[in-house]
User: Which sequence fits this backbone?
């Protein structure tokens, strides 16, 4: 992906786009990547919490079934 980004930037420079447009594209790409990273962090936190709760409920079910056996 890094090579692709570098080659794309070189193409933009070769096309002689104004520097402002090139920098705007770079900034927008960075912002999108930053947003994606934070969304993934939020999803992992949310799913981690759900998995923890499922694990706790499973443990309570196992403990309840052990009490029933006794």
Assistant:
């Amino acid at each position: 992906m890094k090579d692709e980004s570098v080659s794309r930037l070189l193409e933009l420079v070769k096309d002689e786009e104004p520097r402002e447009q090139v920098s705007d594209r770079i900034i927008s790409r960075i912002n999108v990547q930053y947003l994606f990273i934070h969304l993934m962090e939020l999803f992992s936190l949310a799913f981690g919490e759900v998995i923890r709760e499922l694990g706790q409920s499973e443990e309570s079910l196992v403990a309840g079934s052990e009490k029933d056996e006794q």
